[in-house]
Specification:
homodimer; 339 residues; alpha/beta; two-stranded parallel sheet; 10 helices; 22% strand; globular
């Protein structure tokens, strides 16, 4: 039995790695949302002085990483590993950013769960004494995600009511085994891939909710905890449809979530009057809200203990076109104040 | 300073996690190669009873994982984590296999370096006491890779002399902190992303060789070792072009590699009389040769200490079409006999 393992899916971090700093860079629509003033940078337009949306996604990712390093007063040469990914094919935003930074790089793909996956693996590297500090990052871009997963914007397709709006943005966190930071990571629950047969690429909330429920229930089962042990339980980007399904599933699993306690980054990030349908999505959604809203609330002491769980829909246009259903995955992290 | 860190890029594993078992499943062309008898299964044709090449890639990946578990006498419920990836968009072969196996899953993307990346992170999870046993796997398929990165096979484009042939195959290894296995992992060197400006998606060996040289030099610098400390130094899939460049670069870096000592999985896997041009490539290349050739040689004691370094070309069709150059990455592992 592994010494830091709790139950089937949960790992404990005896050193409780600290998040030294974080940064978030987002697009203009996100900037007009309720947390607009809390992001480190709101870019003026979706191209951000680049020649393509893909290049813009790369530039946003790199900017979030650079600002995170600067806030921790670290140079790239001081950072022992970088873990991250994005939604672009072959995680190019993360890979090209790693090229510019020259930090030893481990590329991840967890769809919209990538920010939690990078923090989970980053915490293992840091806690175990294999690397510290470690830069963890994730990002996405509305215009590239639409082109890649659905239709190019130029096609002008009509979005369905269940569709979510991919966040243009990136978030980064610097993990360390020492120093005082914004929050500490105490536990993590690694998600299994869950598939309830949803085949609609425009309803990712429904595809991800069963995975979120599975990881949440595993977390409570492994740790012997209950929802009441957390000030907030925050999912990544289930949106309106997925959040409702998650709440129903958690009642069935005998771990009901209260409305005050349960939040979803996809329902927080945009002004609801914008044309976003079921809410925000994308790796950048939970990554940017983590930095702009969740970590500050923990740092201030308002929230003592938070369960942060980013959720990912594991689909590709090819598998969807071939009739494959959309599996989901969700990884959870227990964040507490660094006092 | 992290306690298990050596130099800028290398980590040490005090427990030296053991590779309990391995398995490789490959396509017919690979089966006709010199290691045809050493693979666990050679599928009769590229479709493997599926309706698409993508489904076949998934089936091959799952088969390699299942056979690896069976050889270690483990059920999916006994395995504490699965780490892996492939070349399909959104690593669908790995994700769908994780769905079928219901093992807590962390998706990786390192292009053709993925087998080394999964073993590196798997060794950290195992060595640090966060998960054991851990299933590490990677795979690729010629027909899906051609469709995704270059042209669909139906187009019948002519391949350039520098082009490599993506291996149809998958390999899996089971890591554990206890038990006696095929080999042990003592050290790993995490690669940085290196880009020397190659823009030709048909010459991935040239794009990857500088990253391979960078990681090799970092490994020797971090550890104070030299090439002579290894019975074999084996790269993943540099092919003829990339291997030649690597040998030149290592002379420049004052760590020359001897012809007897240096091998490349991409130059081993196929019968040279097949129409493969510069050699094999793909995640499945190093993953399957590791299982079918490298681990047995270490197990038998013929090779005492091997540096296994899988190399990845971090490109996407989109970035290539937008004129972006192709960065490379390479991760290295020190494998020794488990005696």
């Amino acid at each position: 039995m592994s010494q830091h393992r709790i139950g089937r899916q949960t790992v404990a971090f005896p050193m409780a790695p600290t998040i030294l700093s974080s940064a978030a860079v987002v697009g203009p629509k996100e900037g007009r949302g309720p947390y607009g003033d809390h992001f480190d940078l709101v870019i003026p337009d979706a191209l951000y002085n680049q020649e393509s949306y893909e290049q813009a996604e790369h530039a946003i990712f790199l900017e979030a990483c650079s600002r995170c390093m600067k806030k921790a007063q670290l140079q790239p040469k001081d950072v022992q590993a970088m873990l991250g990914g994005d939604l672009l094919n072959q995680i190019m935003a993360a890979s090209l950013s790693a090229r510019e930074l020259s930090i030893p790089f481990l590329g991840l793909y967890g769809a919209c769960s990538t920010m939690a996956e990078s923090l989970l693996l980053g915490a293992i590297l840091t806690d175990g004494g294999y690397a510290s500090p470690v830069l963890c990052a994730a990002g996405s871009h509305f215009c590239t995600a639409e082109r890649q997963y659905r239709f190019p914007l130029e096609y002008g397709n009509q979005r369905t009511p269940a569709a979510q709006w991919t966040v243009t943005g990136a978030g980064a966190c610097m993990l360390s085994h020492q120093g005082k930071g914004l929050a500490r990571i105490h536990l993590a629950t690694i998600g299994a891939v869950i598939d309830m047969g949803v085949k609609d690429a425009n309803n990712m909330g429904a595809a991800m909710a069963p995975a979120a429920a599975d990881t949440l229930a595993a977390h409570f089962r492994d740790t012997g905890r209950a929802p009441a042990d957390y000030d907030r339980i925050i999912t990544g980007d289930l949106g309106q449809v997925g959040s409702s399904i998650l709440k129903e599933l958690m009642i069935e699993k005998h771990y009901p979530l209260s409305d005050e306690q349960y939040l979803d980054c996809g329902l927080l990030i945009f002004d609801p009057h914008e044309d976003i349908h079921a809410g925000g999505s994308g790796c950048g959604c939970s990554a940017s809200i983590l930095s702009a809203h969740i970590l500050p609330k923990i740092k201030s002491g308002e929230w003592k203990r938070v369960l942060f769980m980013a959720t990912g829909a594991l689909l590709s246009p090819t598998t969807t076109q071939q009739g494959e259903s959309i599996p989901g995955v969700a990884h959870a992290l227990v964040l507490e104040g660094d006092s």
